[in-house]
Design brief:
By secondary structure, this protein is mainly beta. The chain has one domain: Hypothetical Protein Pfu-838710-001. The chain is about 10% helix and about 45% strand. An eight-stranded antiparallel barrel has the order 1-5-4-3-2-6-7-8.
């Protein structure tokens, strides 16, 4: 059984970009139900299908499976809710933690968030200087919410 424990923050400035290299992500949702969502994602030449449960605090069930990239591409185009999520993800190591910074494009352009996955909800993590406000408890910043209400409409 997979579990995701994650904190999410707005990014306060661009100093994180120095030396950062990102990968393009294209993702969409087959379902954004309150109790679960089902996501299709392409990263480079790999496709993934992910099922996530309802969050309890900053923890939720997560199951991810690699699928043929051709299947993922077809699902994104034909079956997923629109607009699709387009972003570049950067992975940045900082004092024992790997931060994932998502710089959104398309209908969510201008939004930049950072996430860090934890081993437990009470794990201490040192925040980089470029981290801004914590938004872990704000559902507007969930990728599945950004499909229903893109950042450009806020």
């Amino acid at each position: 059984m997979g579990t995701e424990i994650e904190r999410k923050f707005l990014v306060g400035d661009n100093s994180w970009r120095v030396g950062a290299e990102g990968k393009l992500y294209r993702q969409g949702y087959l379902s954004t139900a309150a109790d679960r969502n089902v996501r299709v994602r392409i990263i480079g030449d790999q496709g993934f299908l992910t099922v996530k449960g309802r969050a309890s605090g900053i923890t939720r069930l997560e199951f991810e499976y690699e699928i043929p990239v051709e299947d993922a591409d077809r699902m994104l185009d034909a079956l997923c809710l629109k607009p699709l999520i387009e972003k570049t993800r950067y992975k940045i190591d900082y004092r024992g933690a790997t931060w994932e910074v998502d710089d959104f494009a398309g209908d969510n352009a201008g939004l930049v968030v950072a996430e860090v996955e934890l081993a437990s909800e009470d794990q201490h993590v040192e925040l980089p200087s470029w981290i801004g406000e914590e938004v872990s408890d704000d559902p507007r910043y969930l990728n599945s919410s950004l499909v229903e209400k893109p950042f450009k409409t806020w």
